[in-house]
Amino acid sequence: MLIQLQIVVSGRVQGVGYRYYAQMKAIQYGITGWVTNQADGAVKIIATGTKENLKVFIEDLRRGNPFASVDRLEYHECEHADTWQSFTIKY
Predict the structure, then answer these.
(1) Domain count, the chain
(2) What positions carry a catalytic annotation?
(3) Which among 3, 61, 76, 90 could disulfide-bond with 36, CB atoms 3.0 to 4.6 Å apart, if both were Cys?
(4) Could you tell me the residue range of the domain that residue 74 belongs to?
């Protein structure tokens, strides 16, 4: 069964390739959705996948890439209103 999460990641996550990192991990785990920068310096992600795949995706997001520093990661399940065929970076 697929679930959809809204994830907000704070810290040094803009200007360090974090959105690209999130996209690569999402593709690796078969997760669809999108990632975008927020005005407050955070990164917002909408991710749809299996519970198991989302769990390892979140673990990787907490770790971040070598240039990022994740201070906080919050997520909650949201209504599965939209579906995507891929995982994209929104600009």
Answers:
(1) 1
(2) 19, 37
(3) 90
(4) 2-90
